[in-house]
């Protein structure tokens, strides 16, 4: 009975490949991840062999040296030679393990001569990517619908492992990641690359990967970072270099255009329906994690917006805009001015001031936001 | 029987002293860690004090690429970025890079930039003659500033470091600054 | 080891003890205090276990069903704190209180009044900790490792209570440790020299030194968290010149010796039980002592293996990897010694022995996963996944807790004067053994396949593994109620136990009658 776990562990290696990937370490798609996988398997096998020997001896002893079979116990309790042997032999095995581990580690930590550099920033509870060589940056958030999490809708294939805007990298190129954080410690982990690096606020860490296979690779935050730690996945798409170039050029143009459009929008007025519709969407994807979908917040941690605070005070319109745009220092409230477009900011503030029974009747327009931003 | 036994109180005192010593050691780990980092470049932070430029020979045979990135910590809405993304520099050569900051809010603010270098080892060879990060930076409401950073690389920088990144994370320090300090800071600006 | 005692004891005729609540509140008797520690730890074990049930129930299926993520984080945090500081450590202190004086032939602990204090402040610490769960904003939700800045800038206001509770627990452990050291150094019976001490005494002696070395460091760490949060210091805040990673260095400087604090006494217990039921002397007594000391010393040099992903230079990663791998050597020596003790012995399989054998095998499995985790490049993949959860539950549940259960069954006849119900006890063992493996073994697979730890919801590919683990979890939780039943039944009555109920047991504790009289060894025994 007690051997059961060990057998299961051994049986694992003979399982078909599909099942294996679900139960064993991800082999991954990079040279490094394959080396890591091989190292994992070598050590695993060594442990199995030692386990079989040690547990085997124990079971032989339990069967043959029980009182009913062996009423008179032997009397030995020391043997210097044996004791030295079982100190030295494990030591040699360990040296055998340490050699490949050391070479792999040194290869993993060599970040020099990168082709592409991406700044990866963890933030409660999303990732931000900024390409060093191009004017492209964006937040990447969980795309799974809240209804799936709440068991109201059926869960999709990539439940909790899908994002709105994945990171895109070229294949066959060395991509260097500069990892940091805006708030608490996060950890950027993509098992297929064997890359896991903590995002420490105020410090940058670096790591790298070189993916040869185009594809979609998924990972998750791997350091407890507060309430929605389980809901900030990572998705990386590796594209052929030509496709990557096309994508990044388009993205650059698109972001440039968006900045210009922002300026034009200042003159436009949005209708109440338009504001409330967009506002609800933005609220649910950006604000509801803390302030909750019903605006009730979490007692003592995240203030309620429904029925209290600036969102019901008709005098506090500008303050409300200021808080959303510039954040609140020393609290979890971030400055959303740099994360959302002015249209989205206007909509979400309008929504907060008129949803859940809040009745200020205020309609906020992009121009109001612009005014606060440029005060 | 107890007369044969050693006095407990001496032993207890020694043990209590050990406890007190270890409590102090816990706090001593803080400066020890700082010193350790300074000597080994362990955490990639650069020195807080200005380096005095030593007349060194410029090693023209080598070029090191220094990249600059910035990031705002949560809660500070300033615009903050380097004027140039990267420079190529010979070890020993002095360069100035400007960082641009603007305060779009309607209140006066003070910020502190925290430097970090990757790979951390490179921080040992980065000498800053002048840096805005040595002090807190005040910015009046709606104003902007150009903040210089003057540096050179120690010619001892190992050959394997061909590129490194210097990052600045900007933190809002306004809440820790009194009104008088703020006025003082803005005046000297 | 030493056993021969010159005279028989006639303690019983003046075995009068005080009655009522006052007996327990003001007691300075090591046996009373030991019992209180053990019952307290059992209550905490059930409390922390109840939280584990909440966690496993939420993880039974993907999606959020029972609790919100913030409360889930509070459950994982408080579960960890309670099990470490409330269940395992007090259980060992309880065993130390009961057994160390009897094993070394001392009448009581050296500092009996301090002993009373070190127990009685504990309940307050845990009332504060548990009470903080009901505060606005909830209790601590940053993991038992309370990494800054999640525990400083981003934590709720209950953090002050958390810090206060940890301080009290620390003071209690330190007082307990001082008491153990002074007792062992000053109270041994004549002739009981160091290399004659039972291994349980030896391992506790070394553990006590670890405690006084690292508990103050933990106190320092929580104090820094407190001042960072409330008094404007910046030990761990980059904005003020601090470094959040330094918190982890300080924490794990405490934390790694701490995990050995929770396993070294187990080694002592197993080293008492295996020879007793093998009817053969422990193999390699001296090497056991040296191995324990080596593990304790190495534990100060390996802390950063918990932090390989924080971004250390290669030289540091290599140093900590090598040191960590080295620990496998003395640990291996212990395992081999136990197997050699069993070899050509004359074994019987009473409940304490069953738990001890399960300990050896399952702790070794935990050791294997520990060795795998030591290898830095692979640790990058394992770190902060369920593989780690599986690893430390193998060493802490099937390691530390199984050894505590083994010790309880081994010494229950001595404590109560009655034999426990052997059928119930074996039922407890087999249900625990099966369910604990159903609970924790699948977690290895979940971790390898990529499931991060401390998440309230997971991708659908992990669903069946989690379901199996949860079923094992509920079964393991229920099995522990059998343990409670056995213990109560045994206290209340049962077959009368002899002074030495186990044929092969050795040690001074078996020379006094069962139940052990209120006062033992008022006249020190002579040890040859």
From TrEMBL, chain B:
One of its GO terms (molecular function) is copper ion binding. It holds the Pfam family CtaG_Cox11. Its main location: membrane. The chain crosses the membrane at residues 12-33. It is a single-pass type II membrane protein. One of its GO terms (cellular component) is plasma membrane. SUPFAM superfamilies: Ctag/Cox11. It is found in: Cell inner membrane. InterPro entries: CtaG/Cox11_dom_sf (IPR023471), Cyt_c_oxidase_assmbl_CtaG (IPR007533). Belongs to the COX11/CtaG family. NCBIfam families: PRK05089.1. Exerts its effect at some terminal stage of cytochrome c oxidase synthesis, probably by being involved in the insertion of the copper B into subunit I. This is Cytochrome c oxidase assembly protein CtaG.
From TrEMBL, chain C:
The chain crosses the membrane at residues 37-57, 77-98, 119-142, 162-187, 199-226, 259-277, 289-308, 314-333, 354-375, 387-412, 424-445, 465-488. PROSITE patterns: COX1, COX1_CUB. InterPro entries: Cyt_c_oxase-like_su1_dom, Cyt_c_oxase-like_su1_sf, Cyt_C_Oxase_1, Cyt_c_Oxase_su1_BS, Cyt_c_oxase_su1_dom, Cyt_c_oxidase_su1_bac. It catalyses: 4 Fe(II)-[cytochrome c] + O2 + 8 H(+)(in) = 4 Fe(III)-[cytochrome c] + 2 H2O + 4 H(+)(out). GO terms for molecular function: cytochrome-c oxidase activity; heme binding; metal ion binding. GO terms for biological process: electron transport coupled proton transport; oxidative phosphorylation; respiratory electron transport chain. Pathway: Energy metabolism; oxidative phosphorylation. Keywords: Cell membrane, Copper, Electron transport, Heme, Iron, Membrane, Metal-binding, Respiratory chain, Translocase, Transmembrane, Transmembrane helix, Transport. Its main location: membrane. The keyword Cell membrane applies. It is a multi-pass membrane protein. It is an enzyme of class 7 (translocase). Residues 24-528 form the Cytochrome oxidase subunit I profile domain. One of its GO terms (cellular component) is respiratory chain complex IV. It is found in: Cell membrane; Membrane. Its EC number is 7.1.1.9. Cytochrome c oxidase is the component of the respiratory chain that catalyzes the reduction of oxygen to water. Subunits 1-3 form the functional core of the enzyme complex. CO I is the catalytic subunit of the enzyme. Electrons originating in cytochrome c are transferred via the copper A center of subunit 2 and heme A of subunit 1 to the bimetallic center formed by heme A3 and copper B. Belongs to the heme-copper respiratory oxidase family. This is Cytochrome c oxidase subunit 1.
């Amino acid at each position: 009975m007690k051997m059961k776990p060990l057998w299961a562990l051994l049986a694992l290696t003979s399982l078909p490949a599909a099942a294996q990937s679900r139960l064993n370490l991800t082999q991954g798609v990079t040279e490094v991840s394959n080396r890591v996988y091989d190292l994992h398997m070598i050590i695993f096998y060594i442990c199995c062999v030692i386990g079989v020997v040690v547990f085997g001896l124990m079971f032989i002893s339990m069967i043959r040296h029980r009182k009913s079979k062996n009423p008179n116990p032997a009397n030995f309790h020391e043997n210097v030679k044996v004791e030295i042997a079982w100190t030295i032999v494990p030591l040699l095995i360990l040296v055998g393990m340490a050699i490949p581990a050391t070479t792999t580690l040194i290869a993993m930590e060599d970040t020099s001569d990168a082709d592409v550099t991406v700044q990866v920033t963890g933030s409660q509870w999303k990732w931000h990517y900024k390409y060093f060589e191009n004017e492209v940056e964006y937040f990447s958030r969980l795309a799974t619908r809240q209804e799936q999490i709440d068991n109201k809708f059926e869960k999709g294939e990539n439940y909790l492992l899908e994002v709105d805007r994945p990171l895109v990298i070229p294949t066959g190129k060395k991509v260097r990641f500069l990892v940091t954080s805006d708030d608490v410690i996060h950890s950027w982990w993509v098992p297929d690359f064997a890359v896991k690096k903590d995002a420490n606020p105020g410090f940058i860490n670096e790591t790298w990967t070189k993916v040869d296979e185009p594809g979609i690779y998924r990972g998750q935050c791997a350091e407890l970072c507060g309430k929605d730690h389980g809901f900030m996945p990572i998705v990386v798409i590796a594209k052929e270099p030509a496709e990557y170039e096309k994508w990044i050029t388009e993205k650059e143009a698109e972001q440039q255009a968006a900045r210009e459009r922002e300026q034009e929008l200042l003159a436009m007025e949005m209708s109440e329906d338009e504001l409330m519709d967009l506002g609800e969407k933005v609220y649910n994807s950006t604000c509801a994690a803390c302030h909750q979908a019903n605006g009730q917040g979490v007692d003592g941690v995240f203030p309620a917006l429904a029925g209290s605070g600036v969102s019901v005070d008709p005098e506090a319109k500008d303050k409300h805009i200021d808080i959303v745009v510039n954040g609140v220092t020393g609290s979890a409230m971030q400055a959303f001015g740099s994360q959302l477009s002015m249209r989205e900011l206007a909509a979400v503030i309008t929504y907060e001031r008129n949803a859940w029974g809040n009745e200020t009747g205020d309609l906020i327009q992009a121009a109001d936001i612009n005014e606060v931003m440029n005060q | 029987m107890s007369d044969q036994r050693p006095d407990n109180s001496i032993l207890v005192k020694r043990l209590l002293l050990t406890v007190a010593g270890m409590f102090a050691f816990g706090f001593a780990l803080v400066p020890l860690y700082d010193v350790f980092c300074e000597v080994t470049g362990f955490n990639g932070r650069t020195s807080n004090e200005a380096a005095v430029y030593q007349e060194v020979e410029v090693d023209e045979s080598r070029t090191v690429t220094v990249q600059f990135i910035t990031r705002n910590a949560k809660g500070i809405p300033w615009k903050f970025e380097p004027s140039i993304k990267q420079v190529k520099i010979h070890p020993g050569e002095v360069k100035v890079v400007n960082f641009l900051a603007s305060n779009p809010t309607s209140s006066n603010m003070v910020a502190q930039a925290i430097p970090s270098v990757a790979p951390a080892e490179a921080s040992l060879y980065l000498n800053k003659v002048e840096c805005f990060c040595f002090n807190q930076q005040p910015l009046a409401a709606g104003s902007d500033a150009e903040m210089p950073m003057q540096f050179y690389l120690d010619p001892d920088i190992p050959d394997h470091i061909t590129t490194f990144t210097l990052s600045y994370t900007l933190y809002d320090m306004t809440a820790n600054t009194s009104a008088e300090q703020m006025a003082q800071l803005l005046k000297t600006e | 080891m030493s056993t021969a005692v010159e005279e028989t004891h006639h303690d019983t005729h003046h075995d009068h003890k005080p009655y009522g609540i006052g007996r327990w509140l003001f007691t300075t008797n090591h046996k009373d205090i030991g019992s209180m520690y053990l019952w307290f730890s059992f209550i905490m074990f059930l409390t922390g276990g109840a939280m584990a049930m909440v966690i496993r129930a939420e993880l039974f299926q993907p999606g959020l069903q029972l609790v919100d993520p913030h409360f889930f984080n509070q459950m994982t945090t408080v579960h960890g704190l309670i099990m470490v500081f409330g269940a395992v450590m007090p259980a060992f202190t309880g065993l130390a209180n009961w057994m160390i004086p009897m094993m070394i032939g001392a009448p009581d602990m050296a500092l009996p009044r301090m002993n009373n204090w070190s127990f009685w402040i504990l309940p307050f610490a845990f009332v504060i900790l548990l009470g903080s769960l009901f505060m606005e904003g909830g209790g601590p939700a940053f993991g038992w490792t309370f990494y800054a800045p999640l525990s400083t800038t981003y934590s709720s206001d209950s953090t002050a209570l958390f810090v206060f509770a940890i301080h009290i627990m620390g003071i209690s452990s330190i007082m307990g440790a001082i008491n153990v050291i002074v007792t062992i150094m000053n109270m041994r019976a004549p002739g009981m020299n160091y290399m004659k001490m039972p291994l349980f005494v030896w391992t506790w002696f070394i553990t006590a030194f670890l405690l006084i070395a690292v508990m103050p460091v933990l106190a320092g760490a929580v104090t820094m968290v407190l001042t960072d949060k409330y008094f404007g210091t910046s030990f761990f805040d980059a904005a003020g010149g601090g470094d959040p990673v330094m918190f982890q260095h300080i924490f794990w400087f405490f934390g790694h010796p701490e995990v050995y604090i929770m396993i070294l006494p187990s080694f002592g217990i197993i080293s008492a039980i295996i020879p007793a039921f093998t009817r053969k002397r422990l193999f390699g007594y001296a090497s056991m002592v040296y191995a324990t000391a080596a593990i304790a010393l190495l534990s100060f040099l390996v802390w950063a293996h918990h932090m390989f992903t924080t971004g250390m230079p290669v030289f540091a990663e290599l140093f900590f990897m090598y040191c960590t791998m080295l620990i496998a050597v003395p640990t291996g020596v212990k395992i081999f010694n136990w197997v050699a003790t069993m070899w050509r012995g004359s074994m019987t399989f009473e409940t304490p022995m069953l738990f001890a054998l399960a300990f050896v095998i399952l702790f070794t499995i935990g050791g294997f996963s520990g060795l795998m985790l030591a290898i830095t490049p692979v640790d990058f993949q394992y770190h902060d996944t369920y593989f780690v959860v599986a690893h430390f539950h193998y060493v802490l549940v099937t390691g530390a807790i199984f050894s505590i259960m083994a010790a309880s069954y081994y010494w229950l006849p001595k404590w109560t004067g009655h034999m426990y119900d052997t059928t119930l006890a074996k039922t407890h063992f087999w249900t625990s053994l099966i369910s604990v493996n159903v609970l924790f073994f699948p977690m290895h697979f979940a971790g390898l396949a990529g499931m991060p730890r401390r998440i309230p919801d997971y991708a659908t590919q992990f669903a069946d593994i989690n379901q199996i683990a949860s079923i094992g979890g509920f079964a393991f939780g229920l099995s522990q109620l059998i343990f409670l039943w056995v213990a109560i039944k045994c206290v209340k009555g049962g077959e009368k136990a002899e002074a030495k109920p186990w044929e092969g047991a050795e040690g001074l504790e078996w020379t006094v009658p069962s139940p052990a009289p209120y006062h033992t060894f008022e006249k020190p025994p002579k040890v040859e």
